Task: structure prediction
Amino acid sequence: MGQPSKASLLNEIQLLLAGSHLQEETTADEIPTLWVEPNDIVVLCDALRFKLTAPFDFLFDLTAIDETTRQHNVIAQRLDFTVVYLLRSYARNQDLRLKVALPQDSKSLASVTSIWPNANWYEREVWDLFGITFTGHPCLRRIMMPTTWQGHPLCKTHPARATEMGKYSLPDDIRDLEQEALKFSPADWGLEPKGNPEEFMWLNLGPNHPSVHGVFRIMLQLDGEEIVEAIPDIGYHHRGAEKMGERQSWHSYIPYTDRIDYLGGVMNNLPYVMALEKLAGIEVPERVKIIRVMMSEMFRILSHLLFYGTFAQDIGSLSPIFYMFVDREKLFGIVEAITGARMHPAWFRIGGLAADLPKGWDKMVTEWLDYMPARMADYDQMVMQNSLIKKRAVGIGAYDTATAIDWGVTGPGLRATGFDWDLRKKRPYSGYENFDFEVPLGTRGDSYDRCAVRVEEIRQSMRIIRQCVNNMPAGPYKADHALTTPPPKDRTMQDIDSLIPHFLSVSWGPVIPAGEVMMEVEATKGSNAYYLTSDAGTMSYRTRIRTPSFPHLQMIPVMAKGQMIADLIATIGSIDFVMADVDR
Amino acid sequence: MPELDLILLIAAMVAILVPTAAMLVWFERRLLGFFQQRYGPNRVGYFGILQSLADLIKILFKHDWIPPFADRPVFVLAPLIGAMAILMSFAVIPMAPGLVVSDSNIGLLFFLAMTSMAVYSVVLAGWASNNKYAVLGGMRAAAQTISYEVFMGVSLLGVVILSGSFKLTDIVLAQEGMWYVIPQFLGFVIFIIAGVAESHRLPFDLPEAETELAAGFHTEYSGIKFALFFLGEYLGMMLISMMITTLFLGGWLGPWLPPFVWFVLKTMGLICFFILLRASLPRPRFDQLLEFGWKWMLPLALLNLVGTAVVQLWGDF
Result:
């Protein structure tokens, strides 16, 4: 991706920031990486976003790393904390990583929320989990942890296990305080009181509400049934997945990834294992790539079918979800036959797969592919062509491409605005370049188009799966590499130099070379990326999971203003998110 | 003693109607299951036929909870009003010749009055719960019922013009030559739509739209008080089906079979239709629903009324 232009890109950036020195760092993923002085970051970001031709218009991710216990790969620029910005230019199809080093005694940086609106939640997250403050941020409050939490969990000094934390108790007075902290007060959210308070009603939609798809809370200021203000509040589903990455072996973390986007199944494994393979220098066999694509596309269909049904259900149509569950059940039968599990198979491995395809798999898949088109045609009649659904969804919750990029929307939500950007086409991974499929686009960017794009993606995924069935190459199901997990065993009983690494690799888990890497896939809901930092250990030094649903929810207030409650439900339904993917 | 007979008839009616409404819950769930490629409740008794009984036992043993922030007397009264108003309406429906509690001269008006009473139950429940979702549900119910009641009444006037009576027995007997569904087809369709709206069933279940308002007006209700609302909804569905049968489908009239059987068969057919509606349609938005009522249904109902009157007067001259 853009390798030849790297030098010219760096020159271009250096010109934007005359007088300041930008130090380059080489990373395993070959994304141009620059160390920036803390004082320069806003100026540089502003220039990259607004002054550059073909600008870096999309803030892909903003996160931090606690460097205090790093041992390997020491470089001069690194201090106690590193804030990492990952920017993307759609016009160039080019990524750029900016790093800012901060010392322990001055964990503060200027906010970039005025440059990219979606930085808001990312900066809140970094503050919450690392204690790094952002000056100029409109409302820097905790986002993942409860407001009463002590400490910043992703700091290396913060305990990772309950056993390190002392006995837990909840006396009545503390309980009352915790409950008090959950009460909503507009002033805490930096809101100026608008109009006469007696004319409005604050409605607390969630965390338990039938249409928020999990534990998600939106505070609504209502004028009658019309929404004046909407404030999404997340964090109720936070499980510390990134912290867990720092105490699980590289291999044993794979099942955790399944549960990030819990509808994505093995598709969650894919960016994680691809990132590790890149760090370890493993080249996986062709058969592995194709099987991975096939399984991922199956899960794309499974996730989209659930979306399709719940979208119709949110609009009040009771039946479609049941029909779609029948189809999903059949497909889960196939997933189970192949992987042995249904929703969370954790089936991909570093350097390969857990097992080869079972006998007769192709017949099962072909049967399902033959059965499905008629059902899809039924659903078209039942949902997409239904005039009541059209009335409820067309023109509802619409945004244009520029707004979508500003807020970091990826995946079907971005393509519904008519913007042709699918990672599988633009930066093919795992052999997607060999498949013949189309990228469905919308025109209006409204709830209806978001649904229509996904429906068409189901058909395209079926096309991809059929090509997998017809062209499945023969070969091994894992790479012949020492870091493949579990490692190849055939020579272990013949020489001691194979036996010892095998023993260590199985008992400790593989030791991944030091370095950092970001791998991204076009997941069910948008761009899902794993940004892994290895300190040459058996465990990750830092696991950053960039999920698509997080920025999508941040955008709700933009869509909700002026809507009726029923419109908001249709809009939320059309976003397609799961809270596990948002809160991690 | 005619009074004793009447009391016995009323007791028998209640003793049959209430369990039938409870059975309808099971019937609807099974039928929905059939429409949706699944089983529905099939565990309690043969084909799950005792499911409603099991539900009733469970609900009777639930804590009879009244939220501390609720308006107690109104909160308790609201579900009673609903169930009572609907039960009262059954009094004027002739199920077979002579099988009617009160064959009143103003039977049709009594029915309309009672269905209007039923909305108090929803509005008061929403108000007394002191819960924002419940209030929104109650408001929706009030707006929806007011809008749909107007043309519900108007749509029936065509039948009144043709039969020349508000007495339901007379209306049935007047259909001996031809069921009113044929000359009054427009009135029939409008009345069905208004009927679905009156009984708050999908696609017009906005007062309790689950995906929007959690449970709407009955969010705070549980136990036996919730059961009364539930019962009211199914009684309402039966009532509307019986009214349609009486007014448009010739009531008990029909060849070969006894009159009561005809009445039951027609009513059951309509109930199945209501359940099918629920399985197939999504829910319109609140303002779309009101717009549909005022801009389409009311003018059509008026047109139907004027048209019927003109035709009738033409015949008289």
